[in-house]
Amino acid sequence: MSAQILDNIIFEGENMGISSNDMTTNVPLPNLPIEEGLVEKVAKAPHSSTSNENKDLRQIAREMREYQYLSSACRRGYIGSWEIKDNKLYLLDIKGSFKINAPTPLFADWFSGEILVVSGEIIKYIHLGFLRKYEFEREINIENGIVKNIKFIDNRQRAKDEGWKLRRGPINYIEED
Fold first, then answer.
1. CA quadruple 7, 9, 15, 16: dihedral positive or negative?
2. Are the CB atoms for 7 and 82 separated by under 8 Å?
3. I want to staple 133 with a disulfide (CB 3.0 to 4.6 A). Which of 45, 58, 124, 174 is the partner?
4. What pairing do the DSSP bridges indicate for beta strands 106-107 and 39-41?
5. Residue 162: inside a domain, yes or no?
6. pLDDT in tens, 101-145
7. For 37, what's the count of Cα atoms within 13 Å in the CB-facing half-sphere?
8. pLDDT tens for residues 99-111?
9. Domain range spanning residue 103?
10. Residue 161 covered by a domain
11. Is residue 25 domain-resident?
């Protein structure tokens, strides 16, 4: 599996990413409220030549931009935009194969669990799911959409303590020996 694109989140007024602590999933937390009817899956992009035969190239290109999130780097088929404001989690927008059926921002009272909010440079890169490590992580525990606890982690010190070596390339990252 390819490394996965992160969901976006505004936290403490800054744009960050949502990764996952769950190494077995392709979907970063929080989950979408599909069962509650607040979000629904939309039709897939046309993929057969017969469905495109009466369309001009500009129309096909517009439709395909709508579905650009269907790739091996985004197996879940969407990118969510979230915000934590006044200790509450909100869903702001979804791009890709889902749509929101309620006014936004949508208070995420359906979600209880932990999200991993990441920022800074990638300091350890593994081309698999959400396995990369960032300079800074925040493990945020949420109950019914309300933030209960935040644990801040500075991985720069951990990288030094564990002796990771910085490798320069298309992206900067640290490898383990």
1. negative
2. yes
3. 124
4. unpaired
5. no
6. 999 999 999 999 899 999 988 777 666 556 677 889 999 999 999
7. 0
8. 899 999 999 999 9
9. 7-121+135-154
10. no
11. yes
d(CA 172, CA 137): 17
Tokens representing 1 are: 């599996």
Tokens of 159: 């990288």
20, two tokens:
């996952």
| Pair of tokens at residue 99 | 């749509």
> What's the 3-state SS for the chain?
CCECCCEEEEECCEEEEEECCCCCCCCCCCCCCCCCCCEEECCCCCCCHHHHCCCCHHHHHHHHHHCCCCECCECCCEEEEEEEECCEEEEEEEEECEEECCCCCEECCCCCEEEEEEEEEEEECCCCECCCEEEEEEEEEEECCEEEEEEEEEHHHHHHHCCCEEECCCCCEEECC
Specify the number of domains making up the chain.
Answer: 1
In a domain, 150, yes or no: yes
